[in-house]
Design a protein that fits this description.
Structural class: alpha/beta
Helix content: 40-55%
Number of strands: 9
Oligomer: single chain
Number of domains: 2
Shape: globular
Distance between the termini: 33 Å
Radius of gyration: 20 Å
Strand content: 15-25%
Order of helices and strands: HEHHEHEHEHEHHHEEEEHH
CATH superfamily of the largest domain: Response regulator
Number of helices: 11
CATH topology of the largest domain: Rossmann fold
Largest sheet: 7 strands, mixed
CATH class of the largest domain: Alpha Beta
Length: 252
C-alpha cells in the first residue's frame, strides 16, 4: 500500500527551478527501470525532456563511464533512482568532479546508511517520499511506540505501510468475509479514504494509494519533509471522482 507517486513528486522542483537539461542516472535493476518512467514522462510534460539516461549495476563503485557521458550533455539537474547506498556513491562521485547541480533521488536514500556514506555531500539532497513520518498523529504515535516496544527499533516506512495494508485487509474481511472477490470489490468501491498511520489512503481507479506525497530535503544535518503546500507547488486533483461516483455519472 505504499503510495507510488513519489516519482512524480521528484520532478516538481524542476518546474520551480526552470531547469532545461535534466539527466537521469539509475540502477539497471527492475526498480531503477520502472522508477524513472514517471520522471522521464514528467520532464517531457514540462517541456524539458531528459537529455541522457545512463544505467549502472547495483553495488557499483565506479561511475566514470556514466558521468563522462553525462558531462557531454551539460545537465543542470541530476535524477538518481536506485538503492540508497548506490545513491550515496553516485552523489560522492558527482561532487568529486566539482559538479554543483541539484541531486534528486528516491525514498530509498532517506536512510542512515545513505547519510553515513555521503557525509557532507548529503546536505541539500532532495528525495520523493510517500508520507510524512514527522507529522503529529495519535494513531501513528501509538503504532510507533508499540512497534519499538515489540521489536526494539523504530518503525520504518515499510513497517508503517505494511501495517496499513494489513489493517485494510482485516477491515475488508470483517466487512465481507473470506471471499477474495468480495474483498477486492469492497476495497475498490470504498467511498472514503482509509485512515492509516501513514495518513489518509484514498484509492485510485487502479487501486493505487493516491494520498499526498512529500519531498524529503536534507537540511541542517537532518531530513525535513515538505508538502506541496509548504513548497508552494500547485497540485491537480488525483481523484476527481471516486469510482462509485464515476459509474453513477456515466449511467445517467
Amino acid at each position: 500500500m505504499i503510495g507510488n507517486s513519489t516519482t512524480s513528486s521528484s520532478t516538481t522542483p524542476c518546474a520551480r527551478w526552470a531547469t532545461k537539461r535534466p539527466c537521469i542516472i539509475r540502477a539497471s535493476s527492475r526498480y531503477g527501470r520502472f522508477g524513472v518512467r514517471e520522471i522521464r514522462d514528467g520532464c517531457r510534460r514540462l517541456g524539458t525532456p531528459s537529455v541522457i539516461e545512463m544505467a549502472f549495476k547495483d553495488g557499483a563503485t565506479n561511475f566514470d563511464l556514466q558521468l563522462d557521458r553525462i558531462a557531454e550533455y551539460q545537465p543542470d539537474v541530476l535524477f538518481h533512482w536506485g538503492n540508497g547506498d548506490d545513491a550515496a556513491r553516485v552523489l560522492n562521485a558527482i561532487r568529486a568532479r566539482g559538479w554543483k547541480q541539484p541531486f534528486l533521488t528516491c525514498d530509498r536514500a532517506v536512510t542512515d546508511e545513505f547519510v553515513q556514506i555521503a557525509g557532507a555531500n548529503a546536505e541539500g539532497v532532495i528525495a520523493g517520499y510517500p508520507w510524512n513520518p514527522e507529522r503529529q498523529d495519535p494513531k501513528f504515535d501509538a503504532f510507533r511506540a508499540a512497534f519499538k516496544a515489540r521489536w526494539g527499533v523504530e518503525a520504518d516506512t515499510y513497517a508503517a505501510h505494511s501495517y496499513d495494508g494489513a489493517n485494510m485487509l482485516i477491515w475488508a474481511i470483517q466487512t465481507v468475509g473470506l471471499n477474495r472477490a468480495k474483498i477486492r470489490d469492497v476495497l475498490a468501491y470504498r467511498s472514503e479514504a482509509f485512515p492509516g498511520v501513514t495518513g489518509d489512503i484514498p484509492l485510485s481507479s487502479a487501486m493505487d494509494d493516491a494520498g499526498e506525497v512529500f519531498l524529503a530535503i536534507r537540511e541542517g544535518g537532518k531530513w525535513v519533509f515538505r508538502s506541496r503546500e509548504e513548497l508552494g507547488i500547485s497540485r491537480g486533483k488525483v481523484i476527481e471522482q471516486t469510482r462509485r461516483e464515476r459509474e453513477v455519472t456515466s449511467a445517467k
